[in-house]
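Worked example 3. Consider a protein that binds 6-chloroguanine.
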Amino acid sequence: MRIDIISIFPQFFDCLDVSLMGKARSSGVLQTQVWDLRDWTEDVHRTVDRAPAGGGAGMVMKPDVWGKAIDQVIAQAGAPKTVLAIPTPAGIPLTQSQVRDLAANTEHLVVACGRYEGIDQRVSQYYQQLPGVKVLPFSLGDYVLNGGEVAAVALVEATCRLLDGFVGNPNSLVEESYELSGLLEYPAYTQPATWRGLDIPAVLLSGDHQKVKSWRRQQSLMLTAKRRPDLIWEIEPGALEKSDRE
Ligand code: 6GU
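Given these inputs, the predicted complex is written out as structure tokens:
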């Protein structure tokens, strides 16, 4: 997969060089490039924003500068299909299934990081109707960040860990995310058996794999019911066993 990130804070993405991301980039599974939006400005002040039409607080990022940047980044990759991801608190909440779809079906991902009050709406509108481009306005959740950069890092990390050849053991992904069951993951423990007066649950040290499995299942269900009751309602009734219902 090729990923291009456009931002007025390109240094923000130095963090992508760290750990796994760095490994994937050097192994060739992933090519990433970070671009400075201001390189597409033509005035001495390198202006990227203006007051909003209709008045109001804050500044809006100029469509002309964004258009030139996105056009060039799309043309340079030469991929038949591009996903243009636009982080915005007004976007669709990002989910694992969207991330899975991105990782499986996208050769070229462009992330356009806005600051201030966002990017002129016509940018999203224009690329939506451009053949070969899919626009994905996405949000991380119901809170407001100063800009799209943190969300872009989250999107890139969530996507890249699903790419073939990215993680050593592909099985660890399924269990780790617990995404197939739609439940939160059960709690994990490791030695020492007692730490500050707290014991590892005895079942985990019993050596009885069947008991361990059903204990973990129960923990997942209870944790999900408590922390994410919304997810419980998404479970297919047929996917629940008698012990689960109890
Ligand atoms: Cl994607 N952007 C901004 N600015 N704030 C957010 C967000 C995105 N997701 C949650 N809050």
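Take a moment to read the result before moving on. The chain has a mean pLDDT of 93. DSSP finds nine helices and nine strands in the chain.
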